[in-house]
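Listing S7. Sequence submitted for prediction.
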Amino acid sequence: MPVFTRPIDGDASAAQVLRCLAARARRRGLPPPAALTGDWFGGSAVLAPSVRITATPPQRAFSTADTAPIPAEPGPVGGGWIGYLGYGLTDPGQHAQPRRLPTAAWGWADHLLRREASGQWWFEALGAAEPGLVAELAEVVAAGDPPQAAWEAGPVGRPDADQHGKAVRGCVEEIAAGEIFQANICSRFTVPFRGDPLEVFAAGSERFQPARAAYVAGAWGAVASLSPELFLARRGGVVHSSPIKGTLPRRGPRDDGNAELLRSSTKDIAENVMIVDMARNDLGRVAEIGGVTVPRLLGVQPHPGVWHLVSDVRAEVPEDLSNSALLSATFPPASVTGAPKVRALEVIAELESQPREVYCGAVGMVSPVAGLELNVAIRTLEYADGVLHLGVGGGITADSGPEREWQEVLTKAAPILSLLDA
């Protein structure tokens, strides 16, 4: 498919351009913009100026991501499907409380603005560009720094610590009974919100600079994902995944030693290694024989408010393998479920009091010329009906304790809650 590209002058940040695109969409009565910022498709930002993202039936959620085989060489993104896959697509639970958001939502963008890691902006389109569109969006990039719109948030509704502890103990009992080796147990914060959630995303992406941030919105609500974690990146016959498991606080110089503590933590290492094994198993279902490797195991990385253990898994898959088959084999992400996955999903549904929505699913984009990239939807705010929801959790192993797990929930939630306080 031909891609039209033009360089655009300007040194505005992705958040600045995103705010300008939102103002443009409001003035012209267009659907809102969508955004991928951090480390996406070899650059630092992919912004869809206006895209209508709508609910997608569960039976079409994975197949929407199917495209023709992508060459291995990197290049422009051009456009494609942008949206999310909610955890609810494969949730075996029967929850009394209904979900507020669609289980999946996708929208097609035939042109976009892309920012290289060097800071150079590009206009890109699949096929020919509309007359005048390049000049119009160049003016948006050059518009400077628009004022940040105010919002009001709070008071924060915290999950019940005792209920979270009960779920942790229940999970440890399932491990002791031999039902599972590990499972991810989560709780949700609720925050009444008045304003545009795009502003929260723009502010959060500027402050925290998360590696895999993503924003999508529609008539159904909005998802502002400040995720550090890569679920899947596929180009041609190569797939990468970078599961995160293992966490300690990182709030300043007093926590610098936590990097070494994390590197030597038996509990956190066990969490990460088990999840890496599960990611290898998931990818091995569709990979070439002998095609799954682990280029990096147990790397310690700094992220907003926390240190994390991060590993990389690489798989060689048939180039004609569909993205829907890849997603069927791997979704939901290993790091937010447990091992073995099928039973862990059942245990999670039994122990958690509320259904997961987009949280613990994936947000991202699939381009017919650049491939597929999806994050793991953690550190993710879900907006609907005037309320933001923030899901937070952690991996439970045989030696997990309720108090430590609750403190991990608070540690992970703190940066985003502080953003809303601002």
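Caption to Listing S7: primary sequence and predicted structure tokens for the chain studied. The radius of gyration is 21 Å. The mean pLDDT is 95.
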